[in-house]
Design a protein that fits this description.
- α3 packs parallel to α6 and α12 packs antiparallel against α14.
- It contains 14 helices and no strands.
- The longest helix has about 35 residues.
- It is mostly helical and about 325 residues long.
- The mean pLDDT is about 85.
Length: about 325
């Protein structure tokens, strides 16, 4: 029995590692393209809004239209939404004892150790490992991220404290996708090919485009100095191991298993969100530190993500 479990675990690690490696190969291509001036960070930034407001919603809406409406699927959707919020709240609670110093750096470490790259990393990874069902569950991770980050995340980064911005809270990709996709799921609307096919083509752009853009960001990070900051290592440990393993343990004890548990694990174990340096720029924090933090945490995630996902798959 132990040999069988170990074999299953190693097979799961191999599968997850393969998918993670594929993503990072595309990131490496983006990195090289930026260095070669073929596809630069400046060009990538111009495509971010297109990715977030066109491609990601197409991917999320498509996942809603491909899931059959049953009592079980509806209950699983609601449960995944609850768990998506719970994942962020667990991360916030876990980080309370850390990065409490009142300076310009602590908010960056704290934000990076709580908020994950759900749109750029979790959705592509869920699509490759779990298919449309995984994207269907991880869509709620995007919704929870966009709501909580514009409340708690802004409170962390903004020197003036929290200011509610209803426009950013409501008009974001996760909420927009849910507003469009949820009625299609509940009413089991079958979109005509004239709409469904272009939407699918755009949805397929999510993985390569997100990874290429991410690669250009890493290309412009000071890689030589990012290994010297000890607090980045703490942020990486909290984001990549402590928080996702705690979530997996809690959810497993609550009876969550199978695809939903793996989807929760993927949402929890992805590296720090790109919003770390976007918010740092917006609120006058150290953007260089933010970029280095995201880069180093992302580098470590190549090793940690397959292990965490394999643990969830093996339970």
């Amino acid at each position: 029995m132990k040999k069988r479990r170990r074999k299953l675990f190693l097979e799961n690690v191999k599968q997850a590692a393969t998918q993670v490696s594929i993503l990072y190969i595309m990131i490496a291509i983006g990195f090289v393209c930026d260095k070669a001036k073929l596809f630069t960070e400046k060009a990538a930034r111009m495509l971010v809004d297109f990715l977030l407001y066109i491609v990601v919603p197409c991917m999320l809406v498509r996942s809603f239209t491909r899931i059959e409406l049953t009592r079980n699927n509806l209950m699983m959707f609601l449960l995944s939404l609850l768990l998506a919020f719970a994942t962020h709240l667990i991360a916030i609670a876990l980080n309370l004892p850390f990065f409490r110093k009142k300076d310009d750096k602590s908010p960056i470490y704290k934000y990076a150790s709580i908020y994950g790259n759900v749109g750029f990393m979790a959705l592509p990874l869920a699509s490759e490992i779990l298919g449309d069902e995984g994207v269907f569950y991880c869509a709620n991770g995007v919704i929870a991220f966009n709501i909580i980050t514009f409340i708690h995340g802004v409170k962390i980064m903004n020197r003036d404290g929290f200011k509610l911005n209803l426009k950013n809270l409501v008009f974001n990709p996760g909420i927009i996708s849910a507003i469009i996709g949820l009625p299609l799921f509940l009413l089991q609307v079958k979109l005509p090919a004239l709409i469904e096919q272009p939407m699918s083509y755009l949805a397929e752009l999510n993985t390569p485009l997100a990874m290429l853009i991410f690669g250009t960001y890493l290309s412009n990070t000071d890689l030589k100095t990012m290994f010297t900051d000890k607090k980045i290592y703490l942020a990486a440990f909290l984001k990549l191991l402590a928080m996702p393993l705690l979530c997996i343990g809690v959810y497993h004890l609550c009876g969550v298993s199978g695809t939903l548990l793996v989807a929760c694990a993927i949402t929890a174990c992805v590296p720090s969100a790109n919003n770390t340096f976007m918010f740092a720029s917006k609120y006058g924090r150290d953007t260089g530190l933010a970029s280095k933090t995201v880069a180093l945490v992302s580098l470590f995630s190549i090793i940690t993500m397959p292990v965490v996902i394999a643990i969830a798959q093996s339970i």
